[in-house]
From TrEMBL:
Protein name per the record: CpaF family protein
Bacterial type II secretion system protein E domain boundaries: 87-355
Family membership noted in the UniProt record: Belongs to the GSP E family.
Matching InterPro entries: P-loop_NTPase (IPR027417), T2SS/T4SS_dom (IPR001482), T4SS_GSP_E_ATPase (IPR050921)
CDD domains named among the record's database cross-references: VirB11-like_ATPase
Signal peptide: none
Annotated Gene3D superfamilies: 3.30.450.380, P-loop containing nucleotide triphosphate hydrolases
Originating organism: Nonomuraea insulae
Origin: domain of life: Bacteria
Length: 431
C-alpha cells in the first residue's frame, strides 16, 4: 500500500518549488512554462524530493524506499499535482464505468461487466476530498468553478473526458459521482459491434445525419446518450463547422481535428461570488447562431435553452443534434413542453408542440438493462426510434423502429422521408 501521507507531504513540497520557479521566471521576464514543460519540470522536482527523502531515511538509520516504492510515490505525487490524486488508478482502469463517492471512505465502483464493488478510500478525510474537488474545479473547463459553502454544486469534465458531479453541504457528507467516457472516439461501426444498435439502425442513423435531419437522443441517466451523440457527430463530414454548447465540456469533438478540424466548443459560465458574469445555455445557443455554424450540437437539454434550440432548428440550422432525459421516445415531447413552460417565453403546450413538429425529425431512445440471467452483464441499446410527422393539437409521430425480442430496435413502420434517406445510402433491410 502506498503511504498517502507521504504523497500529500511531497506534493506540497513539489508544488511549493514549482510555484517558486514560476515566480523566478516571471521576475526574470521569461515566458511562462507550457503545460508539458511544467510537467517535465515537476518530474525532475519529484525525483529531487524523493532522493532527498531517501538520504534522510538513511541518515536516520532507516531503510529508504525500494525502487518500486519510489516509482509508486512518484506516480502518486504527479497524479496529485496534475491528475486526480488517489482517484487516478480508478480512472486509469479501462473497465471502470462509474465511480460514486459518499464521503472519502465510501467509494463504490461500477465495472463494464456489471460488477459493483466497494474500493479503498480516495482521501484521508472529507475535507481532503473537498480540497481535491476544488483543485480540479480550478483547472478543469474554460473557467474556474467555485466549490464551497456558497457554491455547493459542481459539474465539470475531467482531463480524460469523464464527467464529474459533486455536492457538499446539502448532503451529510460530500458526495461525488464520476461517469467515465470509455468511448471517446467512437463510430457507428463500434456501436454495431458492441450490440448497441443493429446494422440496419446504423445505416439509418448514418443516412439521417448526412441528410441533415434534426435528431434528439433520449434516455435515462447513464444510458449512453453522449456516446451515441459522439458517434452520430463523427458521421458529419469533416468540412462542416460545428458549434457545441454544453453545461460542462464533455463531448470533446475538438479533440479529434482529423475528424472535425473546425469546431468551437461553448461552455456555460456560472456567476461569480457576487452573482455576476453568468452566461446561460440559452444565451450560448443564441450566440452560436452568429458564429456561422454548419450545425449546432447541444450536449444536453435541461432547461429553458430548449426554446432557443428548437427555434434554431426551424431557422435553417438543419442537422442539429442534442440529448434529453426521458423514459420513452414518446415522453420526450412532454419533457420538452415542460422545459418550454419554464423558459422566459412561457410557451403554452400547443405552441411548443407546433415548434417541436417543425424542428425535430427523429427521436432516438437508448436504454440500459442489467441482464442478470446472462451473468449480470450491463447492456446499452437503442430500443426505439420515432419519426415526427406533424402537429394536430399535439405532436404527431410514428414509431419507425420498435423493440425486438432482445430489446434492440427493429424496423416497424414506413418512413415518410425514405426516398430522401435512400439518396444518402439507406436501404432498409440491407443492401
Amino acid at each position: 500500500m502506498m503511504d498517502h501521507a507521504l504523497v500529500k507531504r511531497f506534493r506540497q513540497e513539489v508544488g511549493d518549488r514549482l510555484a517558486h520557479q514560476r515566480r523566478l521566471d516571471q521576475a526574470s521576464g521569461l515566458p511562462p512554462m507550457t503545460g508539458e514543460d511544467e510537467r517535465q519540470f515537476a518530474r525532475a522536482l519529484i525525483s529531487q524530493v524523493l532522493e532527498e527523502h531517501a538520504r534522510s531515511e538513511i541518515g536516520l538509520g532507516r531503510t529508504p524506499p525500494t525502487v518500486e516504492e519510489e516509482e509508486a510515490l512518484a506516480a502518486g505525487i504527479h497524479a496529485a499535482l496534475f491528475g486526480v490524486g488517489r482517484l487516478q488508478p480508478l480512472l486509469d482502469d479501462a473497465q471502470v464505468e462509474n465511480i460514486d463517492i459518499n464521503g472519502c471512505d465510501k467509494v463504490f465502483v461500477s465495472y463494464a461487466d456489471g460488477q459493483e464493488l466497494m474500493r479503498e478510500p480516495v482521501a484521508e478525510s472529507d475535507d481532503e476530498l473537498v480540497e481535491l474537488i476544488q483543485i480540479l474545479a480550478a483547472y478543469s473547463g474554460l473557467s474556474s468553478r467555485p466549490f464551497d459553502t456558497a457554491n455547493p454544486q459542481l459539474d465539470l469534465r475531467l482531463p480524460d473526458g469523464s464527467r464529474l458531479s459533486a455536492v457538499m453541504d446539502v448532503t451529510v457528507r460530500p458526495a461525488v459521482s464520476i461517469r467515465r467516457a470509455r468511448l471517446g472516439k467512437v463510430f457507428m461501426a463500434d456501436l454495431v459491434g458492441n450490440g448497441t444498435i443493429s446494422p440496419d439502425v446504423g445505416r439509418f442513423l448514418t443516412a439521417a445525419v448526412t441528410a441533415r435531419k434534426n435528431i434528439m437522443i433520449a434516455g435515462s441517466t447513464n444510458a449512453g446518450k453522449t456516446t451515441l451523440l459522439r458517434a452520430l457527430a463523427n458521421e458529419i463530414p469533416s468540412v462542416e463547422r460545428l458549434i457545441t454548447v454544453e453545461r460542462a465540456l464533455e463531448l470533446g469533438l475538438d479533440q479529434f481535428p482529423e475528424l472535425h478540424p473546425n469546431v468551437v466548443a461553448f461552455e456555460q459560465r456560472l456567476p461569480n461570488s457576487e452573482g455576476q458574469g453568468e452566461i446561460s445555455m440559452a444565451e450560448l445557443v443564441r450566440r452560436s447562431l452568429r458564429m456561422n455554424p454548419s450545425r449546432v450540437i447541444v450536449g444536453e437539454v435541461l432547461g429553458d435553452e430548449i426554446v432557443t434550440m428548437l427555434n434554431a432548428m426551424t431557422q435553417g440550422n438543419d442537422g442539429s443534434l442534442s440529448t434529453i432525459h426521458a423514459n420513452s421516445s414518446m415522453e420526450v415531447f412532454n419533457r420538452i413542453s415542460t422545459y418550454a413552460l419554464q423558459a422566459s417565453e412561457r410557451l403554452p403546450i400547443d405552441a411548443t408542440h407546433m415548434l417541436i413538429a417543425g424542428a425535430i425529425d427523429f427521436v432516438v431512445f437508448i436504454e440500459k438493462r442489467n441482464d442478470y440471467h446472462v451473468g449480470g452483464k450491463l447492456r446499452r441499446y437503442v430500443s426505439s426510434i420515432r419519426e415526427v410527422n406533424g402537429c394536430d393539437g399535439r405532436v404527431l409521430s410514428s414509431e419507425v423502429f420498435v423493440p425486438g425480442p432482445d430489446g434492440t430496435a427493429l424496423p416497424h413502420a414506413p418512413l415518410s422521408c425514405l426516398e430522401e434517406l435512400a439518396a444518402h445510402g439507406y436501404n432498409p433491410g440491407g443492401w
